[in-house]
């Protein structure tokens, strides 16, 4: 029988998941966490209230080597999938808008160019995007084609020198900030191609979308393409079907699996700290059974979500992760994070609805996370088909 001294129980890491990380992963995790806590959290509430993204986020994340960090070459760090996931976890512990910026830049726009672009396109765009000097966005969703991208109406017509694009995209993160938009359109032959549309191209505009009650510390835009001419050199040559944009979405979904666990952790930490200091009936509310039941439920859910994310990260690094398993992670972790955020709000009482504390900000953000990169219902059907072998999408 071992006589080793047991480590101290950590209420913020109740099943000692930190021990599952290697030294490099801990360093990356700690570096991102420090940035979020020192530079981002002090200003996020005012930006959430104003509906704006803090200035310099691209350059900050670029200097930290986080943009496209899981890609190889062209100024990208070539980090592991798990390290990228841990980065998303810490970013979303700050705010879903911060993680969304990183995800759209690295897992959607940069990944699309890296995986489906030409060598010339990679050389032109990826180094600047990795540094955060150039910003990208990803234009797939349309007003009438969200969960069914095969129904997209944006069209690409071939000309003597290239292509003419016409259509509208909606709910595009970073759209108004982007130097380049990866726009997906259907050709006259019925194929789905990707095109790099540069800022300032005649006929192309990206008006900001207002009135959001979620993801407010993030720039969300519409993309309008009115007879936009792009040269053949701006077409992603390897992307000729829906497989291309869907592969990008799967990369972003993987980051969400970790990110949702980060949002849940932030809510749990806020509730635990509040419960230990808020006194009612002459003792901290953490000393009451009902409050402890809520804290235990949150601690278990946060740990289970983080453990699931780490497991899927190890699978991705080993090359064994299936798309259905990414859906499993998003299905579980996002809905669980919403439960944690709502429970945390009840512990904080009326204070929980203010921007002084993060819980309702996270809860509102998670309503968007539940929908984008595949709605909860779509991931249900993906898993349902995988389990039964029978499609039920229509």
Question: Would you kindly provide a written description of the structure presented here, covering whatever features stand out?
Answer:
Strand 6 and strand 7 (192-198) form a beta hairpin. The N and C termini lie far apart (58 Å). Helix 8 packs antiparallel against helix 9 (359-371). The protein has 394 residues and is α+β, with helices and mostly antiparallel strands. 51% of the residues lie in helices and 14% in strands. The chain has three domains: 17-131, Butyryl-Coa Dehydrogenase, subunit A, domain 1 (Orthogonal Bundle); 136-240, Butyryl-CoA Dehydrogenase, subunit A, domain 2, CATH 2.40.110; 244-388, Butyryl-CoA Dehydrogenase, subunit A, domain 3 (Up-down Bundle), CATH 1.20.140. The strands form three sheets. Strands 3, 4, 5, 6, 7, 8 and 9 form a seven-stranded mixed sheet that branches. It is globular and about 80 Å long. The longest helix is centred in the middle third of the chain and has 35 residues, at 243-277.
Percent range for β-strand residues: 5-15%
CATH fold annotation of the largest domain: Butyryl-CoA Dehydrogenase, subunit A, domain 3
Biggest sheet, in brief?
Answer: 7 strands, mixed
Number of alpha- plus pi-helical segments: 10
The SS-based structural class is: alpha+beta
Element pattern in H and E: HHEEHHHEEEEEEEHEEHHHH
**Which geometry do the CA atoms define?**
globular
**Distance linking N and C termini:** 58 Å
Radius of gyration: 22 Å
- CATH architect. name of the largest domain: Up-down Bundle
Give average pLDDT, whole number: 96
Got a strand count?
Answer: 11
CATH superfamily caption of the largest domain: Butyryl-CoA Dehydrogenase, subunit A, domain 3
- What is the total number of structural domains? 3
User: Helix amount, in percent?
Assistant: 40-55%
Question: CATH class of the largest domain, please?
Answer: Mainly Alpha
Give the uncertain stretches in residue-range form. none
Family: Belongs to the acyl-CoA dehydrogenase family.
Domain Acyl-CoA oxidase/dehydrogenase middle: 137-228
Protein name: Glutaryl-CoA dehydrogenase
Keywords: FAD, Flavoprotein, Oxidoreductase, Transit peptide
